[in-house]
Amino acid sequence: MSQAMHDALIDEATATIAANAEELTALDQAIGDGDHGINLKRGFEAIAAEKTKLADAATGDALMQAGMKLVSTVGGASGPLYGSLLMGIGKALKGGAGLEASVMEGVALVKKRGKSDVGAKTMLDVLVPVAATLEATGGQPVPARVAALRTTADEAREATKPMLATRGRASFLGERSVGHYDPGATSTRLLVHAACDVWERTT
Ligand code: ADP
Ligand code: MG
Question: Residue 2: which pLDDT band, with cuts at 50, 70 and 90?
């Protein structure tokens, strides 16, 4: 991946999180403690502050460093979880795996770290189907792939609304978690869109 693509990914992710921080916080106020937007804003601003260093690194190393930044700057469950995602993808890329397999590795690490899986009303409800779509569309042209990824992320985030939370803070609410979008699934959807926008623009 080129230096320009690293730069664009960092810019796009940081911008979408900043633009939607209030919405993410409002969602977390409904079924959590109201810090998801501010948590991620802090984390991505810390990554953006190291943009020059990250742009120069190989993609695998840059992702591992960005993941560690998230772990160290984001208070809350989402920091270590998104950190695991990026570190898992980065480590697999460094080991020579392709993009699809590397994303699968990252998602597997989130499951392990969160002791969770699909159906618990978390970011995994978007991450798992998105990783599956990435794999299933391998070999298709980029415009078709990004279109499929965006649709998958939109539908998967939508599907978290009627779910009952069984992991994370929202699970403390029991039945009262039903009828609200999961904040982490919502931020994952935003980040998938950001990555797709960059991928589409730079190919
Ligand atoms: P906290 O819950 O510690 O306040 P955040 O508000 O930043 O952290 O993030 C909350 C989001 O983290 C949830 O909406 C959910 O998507 C995700 N999450 C929480 N616990 C888990 C878990 N065990 N596995 C996967 N995702 C989780
Ligand atoms: Mg929270």
Answer: confident
Instruction: State which ligand 1 atom lies nearest to the alpha carbon of 34.
Output: 6
Judge whether 70 and 90 are in contact, CB under 8 Å. no
Which distant-in-sequence residues (6+ apart) come within 8 Å of 182 by Cβ? 27, 31, 121, 122, 123, 125, 157, 160, 163, 165, 170
> Which tokens belong to 165?
């939370």
Domain coordinates in residue numbering, the chain? 3-202
pLDDT at 52: 92
Looking at the CA of residue 35, tell me the nearest atom of ligand 1: 6
Can you identify the CATH homologous superfamily of domain 3-202?
A: DhaL domain (1.25.40.340)
**Which tens digit of pLDDT belongs to each residue from 115-143?**
999 999 999 999 999 999 999 999 999 99
Q: pLDDT band for position 55 (50/70/90)?
A: confident
* pLDDT class of 19 with cuts at 50, 70, 90: very high
CA dist 137 → 96, 103, 132, 150, 168 (Å): 20, 14, 9, 12, 31
Residue nearest to atom 13 of ligand 1 (CA): 184
